[in-house]
Structure formats: C-alpha cells, structure tokens
Amino acid sequence: MFLSVVIPVYNSERTIAPLTERLQTWLTGLAFEIILVNDGSADRSESVCQQLANRYNNVTAISLRRNFGEFKAVLCGLNQTTGQYVAIIDDDFQNPPEAILTLVEAAEDGQYDVVYSRYAQKKHHWFRNIGSRLVNILTTYSIGKPKDLYLSSFKVIRREVVDEICRYKGPYPYIDGLIFRTTTTVGSVEVPHNARAEGRSGYTVRKLVSLFINVFIGYSLWPIRMFTVLGAALASLGVFGGLLLVIGWLTNRIDFGGWIVVTWAIVTSLGVQLLFLGVLGEYLGKLFMAHSGLPPYVIKYKGLRKGQVVEQ
User: Could you read off the pLDDT of 56-81 as tens digits, one per residue?
Assistant: First the structure.
C-alpha cells in the first residue's frame, strides 16, 4: 500500500461521501486506502461511513463508542493504516483532497518525514485563527516546533513516523507533539484553503482550553522546570539578601526595620518551597509521562472491506 488517508468524521453526513468519491477520482492509479473514523457523530455519519465501506474495496469504516475528540480519532485511524505515506485530512472540504498529491510529492522530493500544509489565506473563523496562533506560539516553546512552521491538521506523514506515533498508549494524544518527539525532519507546502462546505466548526473555548492544558502539561516538562527555575532564583535572591543583611548588621549600615526581615523571610521561604516542589514535580512529571496507560479511544465496531463487521 502506497498511501493511506485518515479522515476523522464528526457530524459530516453531507460531506463525507462527496469527499470519499473525490479521493477515489484524484488518487486513481495509486495503491491507496481510506480510513474513516466516526467520532461519535450525532447525525447519520456512522451510517454513511458504513455504506462507503460497503461500496468501495479500499475504504475502512470505524466508529467510536462516543465522541473522544479529533486527536484520539486520528490516532485510532493511524493504527489501522498500512500505507508507506499517511495523509490526515479533515472532513469539511476546507482542504482540497487533490492537494494530498502535492504533500506526498514534497515528502518524496525533500526526503521529509512529515509535510504540513500552509495557507496563503486561512478561511477559518476568526476565533479559530486566534486559537491556532496561540497554540502555535505555545508549541514553539513546549515541543520545539520551528517558529515559522504552522501546525495544520492537513499533513502527510512517513510510515516510520506513523509507527512511532502508534506506540503511544496514553489517554491524551496530541499528534503534533508525538511527531516532534519522533522527528525534526519536517517541511511545509502551500496549498489552497477553502471555506467550510457544510455545518459549523466544533472548535470551542472549552476545546481550546483543553488543548492548551494538554500541550502545556502533557507533552513537556517545561512548566515544572519554569517553576523550578523561579524557585531557584527566589531562593538565591533570599540567600543573597540574607548575606547583605548579615553584613549590614555587622557593620551597622542597615537599619533593621520589621518589613525588611519579613520580606526577606517570605522571599526565601517561597523560593525554597518552589524549588522543592519543582524537584518533586520533575519526578512526578516523568512518572506521568512514562506510565500513563489509560486507553485513548474505545472502538465500537470495525467495518472491514465490503461491510465485514467485527464487534469489539
């Protein structure tokens, strides 16, 4: 199999069939498969995906037991792929499916492990654009992303990187974080970006906050280390201030007011506490990163080729 296309599906009963049909047209001549992962949709998306799996030999339909979120649905799809390259594309037609060939070509020509799409003009809602910008700033410092790289959901990943991503068994997958844990051989290609064909985006304040917390805490020890550095700085400031107080007391050059001693005691004790909490948090953080074992998703059924269904 040369190419696998993973599509997380959520409330897309009107777009998922045209998208699949368009992929069948544009990818003709390639050995490819399409993995549809219905993420607990409230409409008829599950039924439509099943019909598409019955219609096409190269379509696999998977339905999750409930709505787990886009990243978990994508991880589920990645675990089912067999292609040398894996493309991830949304179900709303904002990314033209024919651009997959452009991303694959860039990956082959540039020997990239991952090729992200970038847009001259994004057609997302202004709220989502602001959220994406904030997430990109955060990921630059938390996962080591290049500053000029936009982390789009539309991308192509080489098989070896996909296999490493699929090793993650924790409850909070973040695909881009897993990518940058695996490789830094990453490129980007400009592709068109269209207005949403149907419905409205599920990008909400709650999901944005959840993503921020996931990236900030789940994929980096940077927050712990920031407090450790702050604690060390305050503790050092307290020690330095204590030395100045002792020298001033010995030389009678400092008038010991109560506020001076209280301020010194607060700064020193706060610094020492933050330092010890940071060291303790470092241990706990490493344990969390190493031993988080909750399943990221639960499969309701797996529709195989021509409608074969395996109940889970």
Answer: 999 999 999 999 989 999 999 999 99
Comparing 311 with 46, the larger pLDDT belongs to: 46
The secondary element (H helix, E strand) that includes residue 306 is none
Tokens read off for 19: 């998208």
Question: 34 to each of 8, 43, 81, 126, 164, how far by Cα in Å?
Answer: 11, 21, 9, 31, 20
Q: Judge if 244 and 131 occupy the same domain.
A: no
According to DSSP, the residues that pair with 256 across neighbouring strands are none
15 with 109, same domain? yes
Do 37 and 95 fall within a single domain? yes
User: What values do phi and psi take at 222, rounded to 5?
Assistant: -60, -40
**Secondary structure string (H, E, C) spanning 64-96:** ECCCCCHHHHHHHHHCCCCCCEEEECCCCCCCC
**3-class secondary structure per residue, 99-121:** HHHHHHHHHHHHCCCEEEEECCC
Cα–Cα distance, 7 to 258 (Å, whole number) = 66
Q: Is 218 within 8 Å of 147 (Cβ atoms)? A: no
Residue recorded with tokens 């020492």: 272
Mean pLDDT of 24-35: 94
pLDDT in tens, 224-257: 777 777 778 878 888 887 787 777 777 776 665 6
Residue ranges making up the domain that contains 278: 222-291
Single-letter amino acid code for the residue at 160: E
Which DSSP state fits 196? P
Q: What is the pTM of this model?
A: 0.73
Q: Do 248 and 279 reside in the same domain of the chain? A: yes
Can you list the positions of beta strands (E) in the chain? 3-9, 32-38, 59-64, 85-88, 114-118, 155-158, 186-190, 299-303, 309-311
